[in-house]
Design a protein that fits this description.
- The chain folds into two domains: 232 residues, TIM Barrel (Alpha-Beta Barrel), CATH 3.20.20; 64 residues.
- It is 45% helix and 13% strand.
- It contains 14 helices and nine strands.
- An eight-stranded parallel barrel has the order 1-2-4-5-6-7-8-9, surrounded by six helices.
- α7 runs parallel beside α8.
- The radius of gyration is 19 Å and the shape is globular.
- Its EC number is 1.3.1.-.
């Protein structure tokens, strides 16, 4: 399902960004594995229409993994049973790393790092209930302090097929230095594949692989406004402006196909990122914020980029 011998590239689950349109575009332009945005197991268990829509996948998304977050074993089981009835999902990932306070308050995400016994039981519930090929986990190095080897071993003992490691603790948020050596220590300890994550970009990707000996890389925030990063990592060079424009237009068209005209509103935040640092970006953003016609919106994108 995933050829770790080729050091595949994953798109990390990114709330508000890694929706179906973006995943379909990065999949077309160099990404090997896509993962849904984080979905609450509780919401899914109660048949949330929004959650079901978030699970939808593009035709080119294989392998495709759905990430859930939760700690209530009964609701996790119900959520997995719902996923079992949906074709096209290749794996279920448990989020054990989200640092957002509202998730932590629910004892989910990175809060599971404080209770490794519960973490194992949640993963085992997924593993024992799921009819999908893969059960996986995305972790951090710990909650307040680094217990990364213990966390990774707990995931391995629970039967996961690979573990993705964000090289910070929950306390480290997104600003602390990423500890790639800690990811390397996990790789030395467990027998399952290890996916390195955290501040990885086109310039340091090969160095991270060399330092961690990881089996794959997961790209997160570096892909926002820069989805061609997957091509750059694979080919070892920057992509030209024509390729960037082609990707931006493909992204826009995918947004409209998925969301309809509402996609114009959502795509504005992407255009703000795409245009960052370019001449005339401020004027472009002001103009794009005022356009509500799909054809005029497209023309403005085409002329600016």
């Amino acid at each position: 399902m995933i050829d770790f011998g080729k050091k595949p590239l994953f798109l990390a689950p990114l709330a508000g960004f890694s929706d179906l349109p973006l995943r379909s575009v990065v999949k077309e332009f160099g990404c090997d594995v896509t993962i849904s945005e984080m979905i609450s197991a509780n919401a899914l268990a109660y048949d949330s229409a929004k959650s079901i829509k978030m699970i939808q996948k593009a035709s080119n998304e294989t392998p495709y993994i759905v990430q859930i977050a939760g700690n209530d074993l009964e609701n996790v089981k119900k959520a997995v049973e719902i996923l079992n009835s949906i074709d096209g999902i290749d794996g279920i990932d448990l989020n054990c790393g989200c640092p957002v306070p509202k998730v932590v308050r629910q004892e989910s995400g990175s809060a599971l790092l404080k209770n490794l016994d519960l973490l194992k039981r949640v993963l085992q519930t997924i593993k024992n209930t799921s009819n999908k090929r893969l059960t996986t986990a995305k972790i951090r190095l710990g909650f307040d302090s680094k217990i990364h080897v213990d966390v990774a071993k707990a995931c391995e003992e629970a039967g996961v097929d690979y573990v993705a490691v964000h090289g910070r603790t929950r306390a480290g948020g997104y600003t602390a230095n990423v500890d790639y050596d800690a990811i390397g220590q996990i790789k030395e300890t467990v027998k399952i594949p290890v996916v390195a994550n955290g501040d990885i970009n086109a310039k340091n990707a090969n160095d991270v692989l060399a330092q961690t000996k990881a089996d794959a890389l997961m790209i997160g925030r570096a892909s926002i406004g820069n989805p061609w990063i997957f091509l750059e990592i694979k080919h070892g060079k920057s992509v030209d402006n024509d390729t960037k424009k082609r990707i931006i237009i493909a992204h826009f068209q995918a947004m409209i196909a998925h969301y309809g005209t509402h996609g114009l509103n959502i795509f504005r935040k992407h255009l703000h990122q795409y245009s960052k640092g370019m001449d005339g970006a401020a004027v472009f953003r002001d103009e794009i914020n005022r356009i509500n016609d799909e054809d005029k919106f497209f023309d403005k994108i085409s002329s600016f980029f």
